[in-house]
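tokens incoming
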């Protein structure tokens, strides 16, 4: 604790004012953590397709500028729940069969139970049972994603049943993480063909393996590469429609029970999905720190909150501290993140680890992003305003906020070395 206090004392004063969100008088929190949803494909970002025609119509306060601490579920969700970046919570391994995953920090679910709440995970992802820290923190209802059957609907029904069992004067936190938007994709038959051209391209790709190159080669017979890429991207959007119906049904049922007005609804995502945005063979998310994968939605709904969009650069490590601040609850022990009511960030960072090896780190500002390969030290810069999908690597001279971003990566590198002795080479002359 002393070390944490010292580190906290060394942090610079925040330079960017936070968001003037009002206090929220909610008794309960419902987190809808939509696994693998990209910020730019949701209606809150003015996406031209109505991917959430029902849920998106509700009066959300949308925070514009949220960056996930990692590109895949386990480390990213651990950051959301603990308020700590990956190198501080240490849950980064993909080898969970070996009982890896002891998290350092306090999870939001544990914290609110210590305050007398009930908490429960509803996940379509086996990690909720496998990661020791999650399973020990709160009861888990795991319902696997089963293709055409909406995972969100099954989880929503389980969530409603559980909420019905919670006395009305008993505060609760329900953390619901549906996997519908995560590949393999199987849109509901009702939605198939809404945007994807079913005649032009074979569609087995959404049920294919993670072997992207093999999948692409198989699908390329009879269709151009661009047609296949567009079709995969269209199928992803179609998948969101059934997710939307399930979310809307859950919110409508809570409304009918008179419980929605007492509940802070949090619509967010652990990470997004690469749909060939910066790599012609790339779909998936694990190893990417690009905007398609790490820029996520955060939308809050409660009668005390206005329907509005709030620009604020922030990290998913700030999620739990923000929720506790809104509800005027004690701070989360060990959290490195801070409430967005206190400050927005100048720089947000993300990390890509495999097992215990750090491969890449990324830093973003409101205008630019840089990413470093930890083995070679090579740094690449991008302009987020003119090149939102980071297709065009830039020199330091052409990268907006280059000096600020480099300082952010150096601070992250030093912090990682202090914590884990893991080195990340950085070309600091960049
Ligand atoms: Zn995920």
């Amino acid at each position: 604790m002393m070390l944490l206090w010292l580190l906290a004392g060394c942090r610079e004063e925040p330079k960017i004012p936070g968001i003037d969100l009002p206090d929220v008088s909610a008794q309960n929190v419902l987190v809808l953590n939509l696994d693998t949803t990209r910020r730019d494909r949701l209606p809150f970002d003015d996406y031209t397709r109505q991917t959430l025609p029902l849920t998106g119509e509700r009066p959300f306060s949308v925070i514009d500028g949220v960056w996930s601490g990692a590109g895949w579920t386990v480390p990213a969700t651990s950051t959301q729940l603990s308020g700590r970046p990956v190198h501080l919570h240490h849950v980064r391994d993909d080898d969970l069969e070996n009982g890896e995953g002891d998290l350092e920090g306090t999870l939001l679910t544990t914290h609110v139970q210590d305050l007398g709440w009930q908490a429960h995970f509803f996940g379509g992802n086996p990690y909720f049972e496998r990661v020791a820290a999650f399973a020990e923190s709160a009861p888990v209802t795991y319902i696997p994603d089963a293709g055409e059957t909406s995972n969100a609907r099954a989880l929503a029904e389980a969530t409603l049943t559980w909420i019905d069992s919670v006395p009305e004067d008993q505060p609760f936190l329900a953390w619901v993480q549906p996997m519908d938007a995560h590949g393999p994709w199987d849109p509901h038959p009702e939605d198939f063909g809404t945007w994807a051209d079913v005649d032009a391209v074979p569609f087995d790709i959404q049920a294919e393996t993670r072997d992207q190159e093999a999948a692409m080669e198989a699908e390329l017979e009879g269709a151009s590469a661009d047609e296949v890429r567009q079709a995969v991207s269209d199928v992803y959007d179609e998948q969101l429609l059934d997710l939307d119906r399930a979310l809307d049904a859950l919110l409508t049922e809570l409304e009918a029970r008179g419980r929605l007005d007492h509940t802070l609804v949090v619509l967010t995502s652990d990470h997004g999905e690469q749909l060939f945005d910066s790599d012609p063979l790339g779909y998936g998310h694990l190893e990417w720190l690009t905007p398609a994968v790490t820029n996520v939605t955060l939308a809050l709904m409660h009668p005390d909150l206005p329907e509005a969009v709030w620009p604020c650069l922030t990290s998913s490590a700030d999620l739990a501290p923000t929720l506790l601040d809104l509800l005027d609850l004690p701070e989360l022990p060990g959290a490195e993140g801070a409430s967005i009511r206190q400050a927005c960030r100048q720089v947000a960072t993300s990390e890509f680890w495999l097992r215990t090896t750090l491969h890449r780190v990324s830093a973003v500002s409101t205008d630019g992003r840089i990413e470093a390969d930890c083995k070679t030290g090579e740094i690449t810069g991008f302009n987020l305003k003119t090149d939102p999908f980071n297709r065009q690597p830039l020199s330091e001279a052409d990268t907006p906020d280059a000096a600020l971003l480099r300082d952010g990566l150096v601070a992250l590198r030093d912090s990682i070395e202090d914590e884990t002795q893991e080195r990340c080479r950085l070309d600091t002359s960049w």
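note: The chain has two domains: 22-341, 356-430.
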